[in-house]
Amino acid sequence: MTAGLSALAWMAGAFAAEPAVSGTLDKIRSEHAVTIGYRDASIPLSYYDAQQKPIGYSIDFANLIVERIKSQLKLSELTVRMIPITSQNRISLLQNGTIDFECTSTTNNAERAQQVAFSNSFFAISTRLLVKKSTGIKDFADLHDNTVVVGAGTTSEKMLRRLNAEKSMNMKIISAKDHSESFLLLSTGRAKAMMMDDALLAGERAKSPHPDDYEIVGTPQSHEVYGCMLRKNDAPMKALMDAAIADAERSGQASRIYARWFTQPIPPRQINLDFQMSPRIQALFAQPSDKPSS
Asked: Most-buried pick from 74, 87, 179, 271 (CB within 10 A)?
């Protein structure tokens, strides 16, 4: 073999040894940067600490994915950009390339799967109500003729509006821009109940000046799972994200992350949600899956 052919053969072998990537991973490798979407007030999943830095349970999973990206792409340095997102714009910002992925509080369901892809799930919730104990509201049937606040663009909003129409409940439904606005309407009496995912309701209650004034009530209207959202038809990126989450769940790391954010005091105010891990989350960690909510 000539020297020229030997060099070509060596180069071919070197390129073959590189990770086979495309789509988002190829973009990240060329830019040496990854852009992640986050929520700024979804306690304890994705929110700000005292320095306005995004932290939380979901952010910890996003960080696991970042470390997996660095390892797979053999990048010694990787710039991480964080962009705030909302329920209304999270899908469009992913589709247009503004963000590369997000791990926040996005339900994996069949409707969204027509537009985006989801990683293995990292959390499971039920949709319920947060109310002031003084209202006497105990379940959804008690919402007749009452004002209820719900997050705009959420699965809870769709369920509540369907329930209102099907049961002729004459509810006044307010669509709030975020969780903080929802709780403000509840705490000031402009809404009698707030519908949302139970873990997020626990976060809003815990950060209240008077958490004992509130309770989480109501028959769950759905059982949902959260996954990290990525662009459709990006098999290499999905495989990386799935593996990062599954490894954390099987190793016990995910359980430790859960305990940190849901059963212990969390920054910046050292509130404790005291929200114990449900059997559904335990089952999810035992058998990682990207199966959507039913």
From this structure: 179
CA-angle at 62, arms to 56 and 63, nearest 5°: 90
pTM of the model: 0.86
Calpha distance 44→271 (Å, rounded)? 10
- Residue 279 three-state SS: helix
Architecture of domain 20-124+226-286: 3-Layer(aba) Sandwich (3.40)
The class level of CATH for 126-223 reads alpha beta
DSSP code of residue 217: E
| Cross-strand pairs, 107 | 226
Quote the Cα angle for 248-249-254, to 5°.
70
For the stretch 124-143, pLDDT in tens is 999 999 999 999 999 999 99
DSSP states along 124-174: EEEEEEEEEGGG---SGGGGTT-EEEEETTSHHHHHHHHHHHHTT---EEE
Using DSSP bridges, classify how beta strands 54-55 and 46-48 pair: parallel, antiparallel or unpaired. antiparallel
